[in-house]
Amino acid sequence: MTEIAAPSGFRNLWKRAITGLILIAVALGALWLGQWSFWLLVTVLAGIMMYECGGLLKLPARKTLSGAIVIVCLMLVFSPAYAPVDTLDLMTAGVVAIVLGFAFWSARLAAGFAYIAAASIAIVFLREQGGLIVTLWTLAMVWGTDIGAYFSGKTIGGPKLAPTFSPNKTWAGLIGGMASAMLVSAIFVITTELRAPIIPLAALLAVVAQLGDLLESWLKRKADVKDSSNIFPGHGGALDRLDGLLPVAICVAGLSFTGWLS
Q: What is the pTM of this model?
């Protein structure tokens, strides 16, 4: 009997799903363990994202690699050995990022460094200071946004959201992502101590996540590449997976820092 090969799109969907489940399991395991496990995962991903950023900007390998090394060294300041993170730490990190960026790299890589460093520090701050539930909500909300946007965009289609930045994003995908983020947040309100205002907040943060996605899509179009790298089968690189989380983490950390989420 002749075996019928599965369509390539179906195989890619399965590869994407399996890889996604593995990545989620690793993230949840590190999140649950906290401390060094979570910090190590974030630090490794920060170094990878910095290297991918330099690649997207078509910068020399030495600048790209130096950026990755420096961001890993910077994250040492925010390791559990020096926790908790305070205002002075955040200000110092910002100054270091700006000075090193403009002194040794280019303005573009300096901006990428500051952005990735701020988001990486923010997610570590959330786990250590905001707590397990707030960090889990942040991750789940972004995952929900991505899933809702993907399936809404695929099934509904319709007008493009920002074709200049990304030809595949649609308004239906954005609305589906917002609805999914609100649904995830409603579940957290019912099952945890988080308050109801996070539900409408999730809709706004879903927009922020999509803006992060659009930013990376624009960088990839400028670089004329499909993915930031190919380290995750079916998913591309670290930036491809975390583009929406980066700006959301900064926003949620800011809200947590001010006590709004307490």
A: 0.89
